[in-house]
Amino acid sequence: MASHLRDKEIRIIVYMDVFLIAHQNRKLLEAQTQISISFLEDLEWVINYEKPSLVSKTRCEFLGLVWDTLEDRVSLPSRKKKSLENHLSKLLTLKRYDWITAIEF
């Protein structure tokens, strides 16, 4: 399915039923989004128009990562960074590591 869209020169990342479509040109992105939606509806997929963001953005969270096209960077969201810092600080303070600590992460 994704290969069919890529054959139409649509840059797309798919994970299960979550899609990210990328293009530098906003108008082309909107057109490619509509092509992709039409293709999925032709395959009898049900599109949840309330959940997805069909508005082009330069920064979005996708698959638990922040994708920033202006800075050309993929990073952890602030809340995940803070959680990771807290867990690492706790591990360094304890000076030991066990599976119970890992499970809490």
Structure keywords:
105 residues; alpha+beta; 5 strands; Reverse transcriptase domain-containing protein; Hepadnavirus_pol/RT; DNA/RNA_pol_sf
SSE map:
Layout: H1 2-7, E1 11-15, E2 18-22, H2 26-42, E3 59-62, E4 65-68, E5 73-75, H3 78-94, H4 99-104
Antiparallel strand pairs: 1-2, 3-4, 4-5
Summarize the entry for a quick read.
This protein is an alpha+beta fold and 105 residues long. It contains 4 helices and 5 strands.
Describe the structure.
This protein is of the alpha+beta class and 105 residues long. The chain has a domain of 55 residues. Helices cover 44% and strands 20% of the residues. The protein is built from 4 helices and 5 strands; from the N terminus they run H-E-E-H-E-E-E-H-H. The strands form 2 sheets. A 3-stranded antiparallel beta sheet has the order 3-4-5, with no helix packed on it. Strand 4 and strand 5 form a beta hairpin. It is elongated.
